[in-house]
Structure prediction request, 353 residues.
Amino acid sequence: MLRELLHRIVSIPRVYDTVQKLAGRDRIYRWLAPCLADYSGRKVLDVGGGTGELARIVPRAADYIWLDNDAQKLKGVRQKIKKVRAVLGDASQIGLKDKCVDVGVCVAVSHHLTDPQLADMLSEIGRVCRSRLIFVDAIRHQTSPLSNLLWRYDRGSYPRTAEQLRSCIERYFRIESEARNAVYHHYWLCVATPRTDRGIWNKNLPFLVMQTANLREIAPDLELGQDGWWISRKLSQVSYPEHGNALCFSVEDSSFWFAHRNRCILQTIELFPPPGALFDVGGGNGYVARAIQDAGLEVVLVEPGLAGVRNAVKRGIGQVVRATVEDAGCCQKLFPRWACSMLSNTSVTTRVS
Prediction:
């Protein structure tokens, strides 16, 4: 009740601007301003524009276009900018023509959106923008007590890590540069160009869905367990540290190396698009499998360790197998091509063709 009342009060344009200023908005805008300096004479779309404060750092000769779904915020922006070009609407269905603006700017919007809403918004920005996306948002930073406290009272319910945001954006854009900053919250900024050919990133592209019958055809020694994952009738011992998965799970979401490895794997998959489902063999906690799944591909994680399987399920991997390839009884004739990643001694990606 109290939280909802506070949100209603903060939605008043003048109150909203005051709160944003106290939260460090001006410092973030000073950090962001150089990214917009070269867009004089260009069309700049402010996605989720709020009360139009971004217009202060957009070059005067630029053609500023405001977009938001909040009619109350529109009143606020019209009080500041007399002849503002405004679009009152949903960022997931932008009412503009293809490639009609030069740059889309998205500041502090993504944490208000669910995963499907974020994907739709990024897809739409990629559709209407000719040259650039400039994206900034606060990120989830588990080791920052102040940031965690602020997230408890933030109106947005979907904070993400930089790695999660990067994975979402890379479906529709090629990231050119990125940076981080901290003002109470931790922030992540990226500048990206729309993909001209989305290829495997097209969320409507049909891929082989590994349904029950498909998986049993490939690995007849598997059974669907009560916990929701597949398990082999026999479980062989593997040479891997008992606490290895737990250790990796504690650092994966904040590790540059793990994120960089995922980018390399996804770029490789983009160069050699699979004709069917991908099998992440020895996939551990599902960090790689989740990135592949988020990219719109069907993936099956194969991991013999119980801790890794449980962590993969927590990460939302749709198809999880607790087994080794041998124990699952995989028919190797159904795997004529194996694409092996040498980036990790615990993660090998295979594909069915």
